[in-house]
Amino acid sequence: MSSDIEIARKAKMKPISEIGARLEIPDDALIPFGRTKAKISGDYLAGLNGRPNGKLILVTAINPTPAGEGKTTTTVGLGDGLNRIGKKAMICLREPSLGPCFGMKGGAAGGGYAQVVPMEDINLHFTGDFHAITSANNLLSALIDNHIYWGNKLEIDPRRITWKRVMDMNDRALREIVCSLGGVANGFPREGGFDITVASEIMAILCLATSLEDLQQRLGNIIVGYRRDRTAVTARELEADGAMTVLLKEAIQPNLVQTLENNPAFIHGGPFANIAHGCNSVMATKSALKLADYVVTEAGFGADLGAEKFFDIKCRKAGLSPDAVVIVATVRALKMNGGVSKEDLGAENVAAVTKGCANLGRHIENIKQFGVPAVVAINHFTADTEAEVEAVKAYCRDLGVDAVLASHWANGSAGTEELATHVARLADSGQAQFAPLYDDTMPLFDKIETVARRIYRADEVLADKSIRDQLKRWEADGFGNLPVCMAKTQYSFTTDPARRGAPTGHSVPVREVRLSAGAGFIVVICGEIMTMPGLPSVPSANHIGLDANGQIEGLF
């Protein structure tokens, strides 16, 4: 079979105006970026508010493994499948980050015959949203140091500046730096650092904002550091919110593209799934619900991180009510959860599949806690045997959930007809009785314990007195109603990435808590979380280049 980029290059894309016309978007509401990409006018989107909402479907997954789960590929395949069976459907995805593209993970535009296109553009510079976010973030950084240089009227303590610079690339050398060296003309030396752009609070803000006005309000609420008396200094006090909003005024508009089968897709925003909520923008999702009868979206990593944050942060803040959930699993990944090494995944091992299904079962149970019905999508690999697939289906039947084999990677929408039929029936059933896991009024530490006990199945949360006191101070300052954004390893229900399956009886140590006042959540860091990744020993960048015809090769 051809590589992803070869398949994408052969796609017969339609002009973006035709894709917009399928959604009844007029030409004057499209802001084209060439023939196959466009942004949607904010004024047009604001006029959709009176329309009824379509059905919202979340695609999530078991805990990720090196064997691969294919969440984005399944999201694209399901969207195509719904259109194939006669439904008016569209998908909403995050934008890929350049860091993983040139690092180890690769792109995030789907795979095989379930992709969004133009694949090269989407995985690289796209419409410039990430560049705008990077610029806005670093403008704020420059204004902080400039304010201190010119007298520091706000009395910012240089030792307590929490705002970092960002770039959209993996570069471990920039995690911790010393800036303003070189003498009086260059300012006051201090310690600083870089995060990757997707970890910027501005990325999270863009993806939770509902309008330009809301965007500026949130930007102004960003806490950049503290004074010596520990009082917070905000971006609004630095008079930075207006200029930052100007830099982001186009970036906040959703991007319209198409799948290989010419079905509409919004790809917009890309917050980190650890340090932030890992979902595409609220603007894109809410707009899609007005334009289509079924909207398929995804959340980052496994359901313990992505789905929980989708429900407890995005849906809570945006007033969304999901109708169905698809939990993606692969036989290969379940075998790894059952103790099989990556090298041995090609051999049939029904016992390991059954043992690994404990991880899938935990996610099914967790989704049920939110009151949303679920179906399992078994993302098919050619090495899967009938006995292994039947073992997954039998396990799910015992839990009262259907499991459907999907072969969209190899067959496109033809491979998801059965899944699409199940999902549409589930979304239309009226079974969903969505409710977040905890109330806004619950104390912050109790919210952390609720997630740890009910989602991770931990026995306890370990936190120093200083952390508990910090949470109480934030409650006293009026931030107690915010949701918590748990930052932990994506590979396990615990904070130990090596513990697969469905462990119980463990503890969740909280190392640090951070207030993202602009985004509107409390980040709870459990274990070591990297906000500026490094490159692997052999990065993907080593194999990306132009061929003799000037076409990109090696991108995946």
Which descriptors would you attach to this protein?
about 35% helix; 3 domains; globular; 12-stranded mixed sheet; Domain 2, N(10)-formyltetrahydrofolate synthetase; about 550 residues; 3-stranded antiparallel sheet; 19 helices; Rossmann fold; alpha/beta; Formyltetrahydrofolate synthetase, domain 3
Furnish the topology, listing elements before pairings.
Blueprint (H helix, E strand, L loop, with lengths): L3 H6 L6 H7 L7 E3 L5 E3 L1 H5 L8 E7 L9 H14 L4 E5 L4 H5 L7 E2 L2 E4 L1 H5 L5 H21 L6 E6 L3 E3 L9 E3 L10 E3 L1 E3 L4 H8 L3 H9 L2 E5 L4 E3 L6 H8 L6 E5 L4 E4 L14 H10 L2 E5 L7 H13 L5 E6 L1 H7 L12 H20 L4 E6 L6 H13 L4 E4 L1 H4 L5 H12 L15 H11 L3 E5 L2 H15 L4 E4 L18 E4 L2 E5 L4 E5 L19 E2 L5 E2 L3
Describe the structure concisely for a colleague:
Its EC number is 6.3.4.3. The protein has 556 residues and is α/β, with parallel strands linked by helices. The protein is built from 19 helices and 26 strands.
Question: What can you tell me about this protein's structure?
Answer:
- The structure is a single chain.
- The chain has 556 residues and is of the alpha/beta class.
- The chain has 3 domains: 4-127 and 251-428, Rossmann fold (3-Layer(aba) Sandwich), CATH 3.40.50; 148-247, Domain 2, N(10)-formyltetrahydrofolate synthetase (2-Layer Sandwich), CATH 3.30.1510; 444-525, Formyltetrahydrofolate synthetase, domain 3 (Roll).
- It contains 19 helices and 26 strands.
- Strands 1, 2, 3, 4, 5, 6, 14, 15, 16, 17, 18 and 19 form a 12-stranded mixed beta sheet that branches. The chain has a 3-stranded antiparallel beta sheet with strand order 7-12-13, with no helix packed on it.
